[in-house]
Design a protein that fits this description.
Elements: E1 2-5, E2 12-17, E3 25-31, H1 39-50, E4 54-58, H2 66-79, H3 83-97, E5 101-110, H4 112-119, E6 129-132, H5 143-146, E7 152-157, H6 166-177, E8 181-186, H7 197-200, H8 206-214, H9 221-239
Parallel strand pairs: 3-4, 3-5, 5-6, 6-7, 7-8
Antiparallel strand pairs: 1-2, 2-4
Helix pairs in contact: 2-4
């Protein structure tokens, strides 16, 4: 269902998906890729609800011009502050206060949103973060930065030329920092392998359709299925208070 979340910067459009249980469940903030509010994003929301989480996907672009918004989000990620972080905090707090939420909230992001999810793992009120082929500043991949962050589950594609070695660097940093994690690189996948924009009927710019054909960009079913299984299991452990002591 569509939702509108009030904020200091105006209303934030969002998609809210409720689990079938009928009782309070942990929440998950779902952060979109560079394409913004798409049918694929709504499908991600629905998948998480089916797994038993109250999922909300905000439109961080607020209906504005996408490329200008992408630059703003990336600038905020580099600065580790700004309107993007303010909006996410507004959404997190709104979700946590709902009667159908337990008050425990995780975050998941894809591509641009994956980089933001990594930056949100430390000191931002989230109990777990799912980072999916997200680019972040270089110093985010070290133990000093990640020490004290929430548990992180991360997924990358080995064929992704834009993030070569990112999975290994993150794995090493999280291990050194003593942060609970699950990091996996999929040999048959490239960038964006969890986002089935074509299958969802999204109309992407021609450039990205060409990239999908020639540069290992786009959805990979087997890798996506395994990644979803890992993410759901990780969230199940770290977002449910009755299982919070599970290793």
């Amino acid at each position: 269902m569509d939702a509108t979340i009030p904020s200091a910067h105006g209303e934030i459009p969002a998609c809210l998906a409720s689990p079938p249980s009928g009782h309070p469940e942990p929440g998950v903030v779902v952060i979109h890729d560079v394409f913004g509010m798409t049918r694929d994003l709504r499908n991600q929301d629905d998948w998480l609800a089916h797994e038993g989480f109250l999922a909300v996907a905000p439109d961080l672009f607020h209906g504005r011009k996408k490329m200008a918004c992408v630059r703003t989000v990336r600038r905020d990620i580099t600065a580790r502050q700004g309107g993007t972080f303010d909006d996410v905090e507004t959404v997190r707090a709104w979700l946590a206060r709902r009667d159908d939420c337990t008050g425990t909230v995780g975050v998941i992001g894809f591509c641009m949103g994956g980089g933001l999810a990594l930056m949100l793992a430390l000191g931002r009120g989230f109990a777990a973060a799912s980072v999916n082929y997200g680019s972040a500043p270089k110093d985010a991949y070290n133990a000093a930065f990640l020490a004290g962050s929430c548990p992180i589950v991360a997924s990358y594609g080995k064929k992704d030329r834009t993030l070569r070695g990112a999975a290994g660097r993150l794995e090493q940093a999280l291990t050194a920092a003593g942060v609970a994690h699950d990091v996996k690189e999929y040999s048959g996948a490239g960038h964006g392998f969890l986002n089935d924009h074509e299958g969802a009927g999204d109309h992407l710019p021609a450039l990205f359709r060409v990239m999908g054909r020639f540069q290992s960009y786009g959805y990979d079913g087997p890798s996506a299925e395994d990644a979803r299984r890992r993410i759901a299991a990780f969230f199940d452990v770290h977002l449910r208070s009755d299982r919070s002591s599970t290793p």
